[in-house]
Specification:
25% of the residues lie in helices and 29% in strands. It is of the alpha+beta class.
C-alpha cells in the first residue's frame, strides 16, 4: 500500500512539473502585435502588394496617394479605418508595388508596440526612458508648419542599437508654466533635443511610430 502511494505521489509531482513546463512555454509565445525592424504585427516590411493581398485579402487594402513635401507618394492602408490599420508607403512611383519604404501606425487605440511597451500615445519621457535615458533628437515643433516634431536620432541609446529602423512623430500635448524666455530659446533649436530645459515644461506624446527599410 505504501509503495502504491509513493508511486502515486511521484506521478503527481511529475504531472505538476509537466504542467508548469507547458505553462512556461505558453507564456513565452511572441506578441503578434510587436513592432520590430521586420514589420508591424502581421504586416512585414518585406511584403509586396501581392503579398498583402494574399495575407489580408484585396478587400482589406486601400490604395491611395499622399503629398509629402510636394512629392506624391503611393501608400496602401492595410485594415483601413480599424485600430489595427498599418500604412505601407511604397518606394515605386507607380504599380506594381514590390518594395515598401516605410510602415507606420498612428492610432493610439491600436495594439502595436515595441517590446519595451512604447506605442502610439506613449509620452516622450517614456521614449527617453526606453532609450536608457539618452536624449531623443527631433525637428522643432515650432519650426514645422504642421506643428509636429519628427524624430531624427536616438543618439546611441538602446533604441538606436535595437531598432535602427525606428522613426516616429511627436506632438505637444500641453505646456506647463513655461517661461517666455525659455520658450524663445527653445524655438531657436532645430533640431531640438528632449534634454533641453524647456522640455521640462513641454509635454509631448508619440503620435506615430514607423519602421523604414535600410
Amino acid at each position: 500500500m505504501r509503495k502504491i502511494l509513493s508511486l502515486a505521489l511521484i506521478g503527481f509531482v511529475l504531472a505538476s512539473c509537466g504542467g508548469s513546463s507547458k505553462k512556461g512555454t505558453e507564456e513565452k509565445q511572441p506578441d503578434p502585435n510587436l513592432i520590430t525592424c521586420e514589420g508591424i504585427g502581421k504586416v512585414k516590411l518585406s511584403y509586396t502588394h501581392a503579398d498583402l493581398e494574399k495575407e489580408f485579402g484585396a478587400d482589406k487594402l486601400a490604395d491611395e496617394t499622399k503629398d509629402v513635401d510636394g512629392k506624391k507618394l503611393n501608400i496602401t492602408k492595410v485594415l483601413q479605418g480599424t485600430p489595427e490599420e498599418v500604412v505601407v508607403t511604397w518606394s515605386e512611383a507607380s504599380a506594381p508595388f514590390n518594395k515598401a519604404a516605410k510602415l507606420s501606425v498612428n492610432n493610439d487605440m491600436g495594439p502595436y508596440q515595441l517590446e519595451e511597451g512604447i506605442r502610439v500615445g506613449s509620452t516622450l519621457k517614456d521614449l527617453v526612458k526606453a532609450n536608457n535615458f539618452l536624449p531623443v533628437t527631433f525637428t522643432n515643433f515650432y519650426s514645422n508648419v504642421d506643428g509636429f516634431g519628427y524624430i531624427e536620432d536616438f543618439n546611441g541609446g538602446d533604441l538606436t542599437q535595437k531598432y535602427p529602423c525606428l522613426g516616429g512623430v511627436l506632438d505637444i500635448d500641453r505646456t506647463d508654466n513655461l517661461e517666455v524666455r525659455l520658450l524663445d530659446d527653445f524655438k531657436k533649436e532645430n533640431p531640438a533635443k528632449s534634454n533641453h530645459k524647456a522640455m521640462n515644461f513641454i509635454y509631448a506624446n508619440v503620435v506615430e511610430l514607423s519602421i523604414s527599410a535600410k
